[in-house]
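In the previous lecture we treated proteins in isolation. Real proteins rarely work alone, and many bind small molecules. This record shows how such a complex is specified: first the sequence, then the SMILES for zinc ion.
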Amino acid sequence: MSSQEIERLVSMLAKLPGLGPRSARRAVLHLLKKRESLGSPLLRSLDDVLTAVRPCPICGNYDTSDPCEICSDPRRDSTLLCVVPDVSDIWALERTAAYRGRYHVLGGLLSPLDGVGPDELAFSSLKHRVEQGEIAEVILALPATVDGQTTAHYAADTLDGLSVRVTAPAHGLPVGGELEYLDDGTIAAALRARKTIE
Ligand SMILES: [Zn+2]
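The predicted 3D structure, ligand included, written as tokens:
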């Protein structure tokens, strides 16, 4: 049996996505062995990130600046808005460098079975942004799953009547495919070929 402190750390790390108790245990052991070169720097880095990084009040992206760098970058196309479920999708799209507009993070997908309704997601702030009048096109970059398409329809309905073009990647994004797992070429191609859905 290891000490209570170690068990507590293992059980916390095991809650991280992709880690279970076994890999958490290995990670803790590794951190103890590499105390100076990894353990302490990791601790400082985690503290820095949790202290300095906040969700952007405009788009929901995580950044140290407020508004975030994407929202405040004058070189980005402010007439294009890409709606994504999560910040990880922004990271995936930014990696491809195929998109130069701005973003809107919904904070998930509508999922009646899991009790996620419209009030839990950032639809009203989306509508508010479009109502400002500068955005010409809203791209719904949502997965081709049932929840993804339910969310896309709801977003389109939310924007109904506003003078904005609502589009989606022509073939949807591959089924069950969260953006972060797609290769850059697939993401870029899906984003280039888009159809008006309203
Ligand atoms: Zn932002």
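Summary for your notes: The mean pLDDT is 91. The beta strands are 54-55, 62-63, 77-84, 101-105, 137-140, 165-169, 194-196.
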